[in-house]
Amino acid sequence: MTILTSRSGKLHIGPDHPVVLISDQLRIGPQWDEASADAVLEHMAALARRAVSAGLDMVDLMVTGPATDEGATLVTDLLPRLAVAVHDSVGCAISLDSRHPAALRAALTALRPYKVLINSVTAEADVLTALLPLAAEFDAAIIGMPIGNRHGLPKDVQGRMREAEVILEQAAAYGIPSEDVVMDAICLAPSAEPGSMAVSLETLRRFRDELGVATTLGISNAGYGMPEPFHITLAYLLSAMPWGLDSALVNPRTPLLIETVRAGDFLTHRDPYGKRYLQHYRATQRL
Questions:
Q1: Where does the chain hold its CATH 3.20.20.20 domain(s)?
Q2: Which candidate among 117, 160, 220, 237 keeps its CA 20 to 30 Å from the CA of 20?
């Protein structure tokens, strides 16, 4: 089980706890510049407030810039400002989705003393060398993406298991325990990769049963290329829960997302006596 911390307290990701829902909507693309930074930060904080008000548990923050030295400098400046602005606004746990070591270091420093998540750490040697020392230094947890140097993204369960084992072995070498690794079983769009959901579900099961790690999926990919994609992503999410899904990156605008996941947590005993289900019901009845 992975435990993150924030101003709101501890957040548990793992078996016997409710499925953690992470907003995947806080993305800042390369079009921004320093002149627009304050407005961008205000907009991102508003998105975070809406996500948490809807019932999501945490947010994933991504900042990208032009592929230049200047772009890297801009990202290094903006990511910690974004992390602080969002945390100050909503107080929830934070995931930092960046491959820029300098930007991550700045954001991790700004968020101290809280324990945050670094997303996404692949099995590629250069990524492990760049990001694992930061995770160890700042006592951060990581999301492991089973994508490697040699085979890229494995399309089969065994390949994903091998890459996941590489991440866990390298993390352990840096003193990062398996409890601080959330492994992504990888959600591909079935419209482009027919049959891929079965591979992802079996990967979830084996991550849980054989590696003993907490799990996640980027669920929003599921509906790509299809009409009414929200229906497909929600169906994918519900299908994955019994296979060992502990957390998911989701779009908070998905209709019935919170109600349905809360119901699933109740039925699978992740939410004994339906406390969170009832809490959400009472909160929405007052609106």
A1: 2-255
A2: 160
